[in-house]
Design brief:
It is built from 11 helices and 14 strands. By secondary structure, the chain is of the alpha+beta class. The longest helix has 18 residues, at 164-181.
Length: 346
């Protein structure tokens, strides 16, 4: 069997140094192949991260002199990063990672890192589809999705058939919420986005604090700034979507996510715990679901993690992988040692 990696060469370039042809080739690969249609793997997302992090770079694969694959990266911000350890662009904020390329392109990642002088690459959120590129992976974790078929009313009725108690309970709580507090106001795309995003972030940080997740991503200023930049993104490959559920102008549930073509990444959902008895997160998701179908959304991606709240609406599961790729040699040893120490402390 012929070696599909023959004729490939690898380069690493700062994101801002990509030329127009390279950016166009990257965007075309996202548009053409469904497995690449992940907002977190687009040049739009990488550009938003790069605006706040000059270390963002792209591993570019050339096949016979033509740009054929793109893998956006950044240097880690901890001690491991100082020793040459890289990670997916966006770091802990990123819900998908991998090589943006045609399905039949396979690479030797060790060779790629060696040629690009990148000692180590620690990654999470490598989707199952990425294995077709010859990328090694380990530590599989479940990811969940909701795939939608029109009309959306049929989806809700199919869900009723699958879990009558859950659907009845959700509808009952929504009726009771309206009876106790008045009419709900839902906006699939917020009319006051900056103000509502600030409220979402405050609610999310309060949630992290209650659950003792004091190292959660939105406590870092750079990540909050990234959300604000993405809020303005309006490319078909990466559009910021902020949805809210309000009572008398008060947010009781909200979600900020990213849309890439037919997929909505359900990224940062939150609700006001004062209304927890009404399950506002469920109500919001149902409203988002109903609003998404007319807009062309067919998949609501819940990312990595297997929780009951995600399974309530999910009808598909897949796998994400974590791992560590090394260029080998002495240059990788210091970073590997520091990573090992950080993992033990965690």
């Amino acid at each position: 069997m012929p070696d599909s990696t023959i004729g490939l060469t690898f380069f690493v370039k700062p994101f801002q140094q990509l030329d127009a042809c390279e950016r166009d080739a990257w965007a075309a690969l996202v548009d053409r192949y469904p497995d690449n249609r992940r907002a977190f793997m687009t040049p739009v997302y990488a550009e938003a991260v790069a605006a706040g992090d000059p270390s963002v770079c792209v591993l570019v694969v050339h096949a016979n002199g033509t740009a054929a694959g793109f893998m956006p990266l950044q240097r880690r911000v901890d001690w491991a990063g100082r020793l040459g350890v890289y990670e997916p662009v966006g770091g802990v904020m990123t819900d998908y990672f991998g090589l943006v390329a045609a399905p039949d392109l396979q690479i030797d990642i060790k060779q790629a890192l060696r040629e690009c002088r990148l000692p180590l690459l620690a990654f999470t959120h490598l989707d199952t589809a990425q294995l077709q590129h010859g990328l090694p992976a380990e530590q599989a974790r479940i990811g969940l999705k909701t795939e939608i078929e029109e009309p959306v009313a049929d989806f809700w009725e199919r869900l009723r058939e699958r879990d009558k108690k859950f659907v009845y309970d959700t509808e009952r709580r929504e009726r009771k919420l309206g009876k106790d507090y008045g009419e709900l106001c839902f906006e699939s795309d917020s009319s006051s986005p900056q103000e509502d995003l600030a409220t979402l972030i405050a609610l999310k940080c309060a949630q992290y604090t209650r659950s003792s997740k004091l190292q959660a991503p939105l406590f870092a200023r750079r990540n909050v700034e990234l959300l604000h930049r993405l809020l303005d993104a309006r490319s078909p490959q990466c559009t910021g979507v902020l949805s809210t559920l309000k009572l008398d102008g008060r947010i009781i549930a909200a979600h900020f996510g990213l849309r890439c073509h037919e997929t909505l990444h359900y990224w940062f959902p939150v609700y006001d715990p004062a209304f927890s008895n009404y399950a506002p997160g469920r109500i919001l998701f149902r409203r988002v679901l109903e609003a998404s179908v007319p807009q062309g959304v067919r998949i609501i991606d819940r990312g990595e993690g297997d929780t009951q709240a995600k399974r309530d609406f999910a009808n598909r599961e897949h796998l994400f992988y974590r791992g560590l790729w090394s260029a080998g040699g002495i240059s990788a040893l210091p970073g590997r040692a520091v990573l090992s120490l950080l993992w033990r402390l965690a």
